[in-house]
Structures are given as C-alpha cells and as structure tokens.
Amino acid sequence: ETGVTQSPTHLIKTRGQQVTLRCSSQSGHNTVSWYQQALGQGPQFIFQYYREEENGRGNFPPRFSGLQFPNYSSELNVNALELDDSALYLCASSRIEQNTEAFFGQGTRLTVV
Amino acid sequence: DQQVKQNSPSLSVQEGRISILNCDYTNSMFDYFLWYKKYPAEGPTFLISISSIKDKNEDGRFTVFLNKSAKHLSLHIVPSQPGDSAVYFCAASVNAGNMLTFGGGTRLMVKP
Predict the structure, then answer these.
(1) What distance in Å separates residue B52's CA from the closest CA in chain A?
(2) Interior CA angle at B35 toward A8 and A54, to 5°?
(3) Rounded CA gap, A66 and A77, in Å?
(4) Which residues of chain B make contact with A35, given a CB cutoff of 8 A?
(5) Are A108 and A12 spatial neighbours (Cβ–Cβ below 8 Å)?
(6) Measured CA distances, A33 to A9, A56, B3, B45 (Å)
(7) Is pLDDT of A1 > 60?
(8) Predicted confidence (pLDDT) per residue in B8-34, tens digit
(9) What is the pLDDT of residue A95?
(10) What is the mean pLDDT of residues A63-68?
(11) Would residue B7 be called left, alpha or beta, if left means φ above 0 and alpha means ψ between -120 and 50 degrees?
C-alpha cells in the first residue's frame, strides 16, 4: 500500500508566475484535499476533490484551482503568484464513504520571491 | 475568525510524565475531531480521533477527551517519551467530511 506522495518537494517561483503542484493519493482513497500551511500556523483548507469535481472550498481566491484525475491523483494550480503564497502545501487523501482520518503527504515547500 | 484554537504554542514535559495538550473550538457544527503530529520536513501524521457522540477515546498511550458543552478537547499522552517531541495539531470537521479546520499547533518538548 503506497502512501500519499507529493512533487516537487521544494520550489522557488517569481511573483506573478504560475505554479503546479502534484499529489498521488494513497491506494484505495478517492478524495483529495489541499491545504496551505504558512510558517508558524496550522494548515488551512484550500479545497477538496471527489469524483474529479471540487467538493468543497475554503477561503481562497479563484487563482487557486485544482484537478483530480481518474486515478485519483491531483494537481493544485496557483496563478499570479504573490509573496504571501510562500508556504508549505499539503495534500491529503481519504475515502469519502468511510469515517476515517485523512492521510497527508510530506508537502511541497513553495517560496515566492 | 479562528474556529479551532490551541492557546499554548509550546509545552515542555519531563520524560515519563503526562503531557496534556488542549484545544478549543467555536463551531457547534463540528462533529469529528482529530489530533495530528508533525515532525519537521514531514507531513502531519494522524494520531487519534473522536466523534462528537463520544467523550473519550483511547489508543495506547494516547487518550482524547471531548467536552462538548465547553467546546473543548484535550490530548493526554502517558507516559511521555522523547520521541513524542513534535508539533501537535488539533483539527475538526463537519459531517466527518475530512475538510479539516486546524488549530495553530502546540510544540511539545519531552525532556529525557
């Protein structure tokens, strides 16, 4: 059983650029959620995908968008990067039919300069 | 508007003693609560959870207590071990949908 994996682990981008982060779900999981963790804070929910559609969204602007693929892997896209987007981005997978915990990947550290 | 709060940014405990980490929430709709542990350069790791229909859940050295009337939960670690040193996050969700609202975390240091 493979865990949640994210790529890349680190990334440096320039303000105004666009970035795509990737996540492979844990085997058997059909739901993917993305979180942003700023330094010294707890993770903040960005959005969740189930059956390739957005299933819920936190308080993030539309320039944060995502995709879920038939194999349940997922992408997080951020357009028009701002300095405040610098954070650890975490992906979590779960099985929506089960009342169980979400499993997290190791995260992607994004630095916007 | 922080719906989940961990008011202690850090906690230091001697090895073998009890560690008590606290969490408060404001949203009455939350019905599922979880604790995650996070080491540097790793993602959060699930520790233990509790449904709102219960007031206690135990798993080995870890026990979570839920006081719904006070909107408060706590994580007890007994006995504490140096390997427990990490940042602990409390999280909550509505309808156990796994759209988690996290607290700000408490850094636990267990001294040998």
Answers:
(1) 12
(2) 50
(3) 6
(4) 100, 102
(5) no
(6) 17, 9, 19, 15
(7) no
(8) 999 999 999 999 999 999 999 999 999
(9) 85
(10) 96
(11) alpha
